[in-house]
């Protein structure tokens, strides 16, 4: 089983959970952060990937 991580948006606090993906944007569960498209945006506020930090 993979060790999935979570990433939190520094602007709005939205959390991207690798285990859950981002169904609202067609990102399947178990999609790693590194595998997200470069143009992926926060589902909460539209921020780009550099505005996220890996959680604990």
Number of domains: 1
Overall 3D form: globular
Q: Provide the low-confidence segments as ranges.
A: none
Strand percentage lies at 15-25%
Give the second-level CATH assignment, the architecture: Single Sheet
Largest sheet: 3 strands, antiparallel
Radius of gyration (CA) equals: 10 Å
- Strand order of the biggest β-sheet: 2-1-3
CATH topology: Rubrerythrin, domain 2
Q: Helical proportion?
A: under 10%
N- to C-terminal distance? 19 Å
Mean pLDDT across the residues is 95
Structural class: mainly beta
**What is the CATH class designation?**
Mainly Beta
Report the order of strands and helices: EEE
Q: What does this protein look like?
A:
It is a single chain. This protein has 56 residues and is mainly beta. It has one domain (6-54): Single Sheet (Rubrerythrin, domain 2). Helix content is 0%, strand content 18%. It is built from no helices and three strands. It has strands at 6-9, 15-17, 52-54. Strand 1 (6-9) and strand 2 (15-17) form a beta hairpin. The protein is globular and about 30 Å long. The mean pLDDT is 95.
Tell me briefly what this model is:
This protein is an all-beta fold. It is built from no helices and three strands.
List the helices and strands and how they pair.
Layout (H helix, E strand, L loop, with lengths): L5 E4 L5 E3 L34 E3 L2
Antiparallel strand pairs: 1-2, 1-3
Which short descriptors sum up this protein?
mainly beta; globular; 56 residues
